[in-house]
Amino acid sequence: MIMMKARMPYFISVIICIVLGLGSRTYSGLLPVFIAEHAGDMLWASMVYFGFRFLFTSKSLAWAAAGSLLFSFGIEFSQLYQAEWIVKLRHTLLGALIIGRGFLTLDLIRYALGVTIAFGVDKFGLRRKS
Questions:
Q1: What is the pLDDT of residue 3?
Q2: Residue of 118, 87, 109 whose CA lies nearest to 100
Q3: What is the mean pLDDT of residues 82-93?
Q4: Which of 18, 50, 67, 106 would bridge 13 by S-S if both were Cys, CB 3.0 to 4.6 A apart?
């Protein structure tokens, strides 16, 4: 029970990131251009960070941040692989949301910012001192 209670803020944070990220794509025409262009990828990386924290609550925040960056960067660099089967997968909605469509160097910056923001929210907002 205690372990689940420790995980709950991260689960809720994952859900919030998903809702906001999908909203940033769905309603991009209603948002300022800067937010519409960058928020989705930053929120995706934040979701990855909170997912790492949910799965690995006993690990340090720095470990979760490093793991999240490695995972996110790995997904981005995997977009350089252009086999027919994975290109077809990327052109599905779920495939595009999870593994993206094409490599962009700017996405690496967005991911780094998203993980940094999530780390800050975790360190100064979600974590409780014992």
A1: 77
A2: 87
A3: 93
A4: 50
- Residue found by looking up tokens 């923001």 in the block: 117
The residue range of the domain holding 71 is 2-126
CB atoms within 10 A of CB 15: 12
Nearest to residue 115, comparing CAs of 22, 50, 35, 20? 50
Residue closest to 107 by CA, chosen among 67, 82, 80, 84: 80
Total count of domains within the chain: 1
- 65: pLDDT strictly greater than 50: yes
CA distances from 128 to 2, 14, 33, 121, 123 (A): 13, 18, 36, 12, 9
